[in-house]
PaaI family thioesterase (Brachyspira aalborgi), 138 residues
Amino acid sequence: MNKEILERAENIFKNQEFQNLTGMKLEKLEDKKSIISCENKKELSQGLGYMHGGMVASILDTAGGFAAFTVIPSNCHLVTSELKINYMRPVISKKVFGIGEVISQGKKLIVVEATLKDEEDNMLAKMMATMFVVEDKK
């Protein structure tokens, strides 16, 4: 992958307040693929002590978004147009990984898939989403 894309992605990731707040980390970025990790801490849980479904969605959305980021022009950015998630198991592990991958790429829409796995490689959730490519106005 292009070094410029990697540096741009790392800079964008570290400057997003939500990722800093939740503790998400960009573990790996390569062409059409990303891996995001997140520690499962008390502040991210719901009433039963499992990781909140909204947090799971955020990790998967971020993983899919950064996978899509690797294929867009440098004068563009992305927003999520839609997403669908299947939750398969409650998140009780100490750390999870969102693995995002580009499935289909057009000029304005990029379809991505992301899987949430625990440290033992168990699948916890699966997402499919559409990312909308937006040209910078600068």
In short: The mean pLDDT is 96. The domain at 3-135 is CATH 3.10.129.10 (Thiol Ester Dehydrase; Chain A).
